[in-house]
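just leaving the lab so this will be short. below you get a single protein, a line of residues and a line of whole numbers that encode the local backbone shape. id like you to explain what the token line says about the fold, in plain words if possible. thanks a lot i owe you, the record is right below:

…
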Amino acid sequence: MHRKRLHVYRAVYFFVCMNELRLDSNHDITLSGTRISRILTSDPDAARKEAEQQCLCLLRCEEGESFVDYTHGVPWFKRILGLPAQYLDVATAIIRQKLSQLPTVKKVVKITLEVNGRNMGGKFKVQANDGSVTTGEF
């Protein structure tokens, strides 16, 4: 029992640290020389960068996919994909609700969904906790 609890604590610590790691445009961990690069709190743009990165991580994860937090991610297969195009407002509301739950997001400013045949993508604009605004595409 004790080992299992320790494993869960390590997994949670790993998940929290992953959100501090700086990721590149391909969503890979960025290196600075031979060291892993992190988003530093001393960086004046840190809150904006963290909000953008957490939004992209959330949008690229299926809900239930994370072994640490089953609520992390968007229910793409369960609730969004397969909706008729006229119900994009339902999909937008689900995504808005998931983004607004992130600890680095103060307000979801705008979400735009685009459907092109069988492909779905979109853009988001959120306000970070320090008031700065960031955008991203998924």
